């Protein structure tokens, strides 16, 4: 997770928001750029580009972002283009993502829909048509 490295290019216009370890935030957070959570966030995260939950971080609410990297805890539904669940992470909620990586030890309790939901496998389409 090379997020917020010393040599990050802040002149690119990318917006970074941080909920640090000693912070507690309650409410819906609409983020246009990237968010790192090392503290506790109770509420939803909407429209983020990147959401990174550090090993001590916790989000209690739904997360919608292009890329989500979870090293801590998410208790809520996750909707992302790409989801990475690190070894010590825990997600309790449903997941909808185009791509997902789960490291050994990462825990998920909920339903997962991975891939493009628009494209049904040919076999499933055929079975649906036969049952009509």
Account of the protein in words:
With 132 residues, the protein is mainly beta. It has one domain. It has one helix and 14 strands; from the N terminus they run E-E-E-E-E-E-E-E-E-E-E-E-E-E-H. The strands form two sheets. Strands 1, 3, 4, 6, 8, 10, 12 and 14 form an eight-stranded parallel β-sheet that branches. The longest helix has 9 residues. It is globular and about 55 Å long. The termini are far apart. The N terminus is likely disordered.
Helix percentage: under 10%
Strand runs, count: 14
Provide the structure class: mainly beta
Secondary-structure element sequence? EEEEEEEEEEEEEEH
Helical segment tally?
A: 1
Counting structural domains, the number is: 1
What Rg do the Cα atoms give? 17 Å
For the biggest sheet, the summary is:
8 strands, parallel
Give the overall pLDDT as a whole number.
85
Specify the overall morphology: globular
Share in β-strands: over 45%
Could you name the ranges where pLDDT drops below 50 across 5 or more consecutive residues? 1-11
How do you describe this structure in short?
The protein is mainly beta and 132 residues long. 7% of the residues lie in helices and 48% in strands.
Fold blueprint:
Blueprint: E1 16-19, E2 24-26, E3 29-30, E4 34-37, E5 40-42, E6 45-53, E7 58-60, E8 63-70, E9 73-75, E10 78-85, E11 90-92, E12 95-102, E13 107-109, E14 112-114, H1 122-130
Parallel strand pairs: 1-4, 2-5, 3-6, 4-6, 5-7, 6-8, 7-9, 8-10, 9-11, 10-12, 11-13, 12-14
